[in-house]
Amino acid sequence: MQITNSTAPRPTRPVRSGILTLLAILLGTVLAAALVGLVLLSVTGWIQSPDETASAHTSSVSVGSDVTSDEPPQTGPLTEADGLIPAGTDITAGADLPAVTRLNPALRAAVEAATAEATLDGQPLYVTTGWRSARYQGQLYDEALATYGSEEDARQFVATPETSTHVTGTAVDIGPLDAMYWLLEHGPDYGLCQTYANEIWHFELATTPGGTCPEMLPDASHLGG
């Protein structure tokens, strides 16, 4: 006698097929939503191109970074950006020109204070040259070399860009002649001293206010200038 199993077989294949179909639908929905999101972001400008990202980063660089917008050009005629003071122009340490705005702040403040006292004494005191770019200093040195004929003689009056205290913003030349003599007498009250014996116009912040100025160097070749 043949014994038969009355229990019906389990429909495994149809169930598995249904699950796979459901997963495919869900995956398709997710991909479609992601695609729509990318399109919306692109249209509204929320996605930045690499160039835009770099531009945004550059604009966020703080003042004082290595890249500065006020550096003078390296070619062409010298300009005020190099520290050039226009011919025939009398300026004080309070002027809004790179020749004085790029001076060491303590030096500039001392010259401004001395200028105020000199003015009260009836003595005008002007800055004839202050900070200079390396290019400006180099041109002055080349002119001195052509005039005096040797580096040894030229450097007694004009320092190289590498040694000049004008390039570092730590020296000023002042005028007129009476102002030079006035500052020789009163400059130490503000820490200002003539530093080279052959340059009565050249002053640096070389002592504390009210202090004693150091002995002058013979000329600029001994340090800078």
TrEMBL record:
Q: Which terms are listed as keywords in the entry?
A: Membrane, Transmembrane, Transmembrane helix
Residue intervals passing through the bilayer: 20-47
D-alanyl-D-alanine carboxypeptidase-like core domain: from which residue to which, for each copy? 102-181
Under Gene Ontology molecular function, one entry of this record is: peptidase activity
Which residue ranges does the record annotate as region Disordered? 56-85
Compositional bias (Low complexity):
58-67
* Protein name from the UniProt record: M15 family metallopeptidase
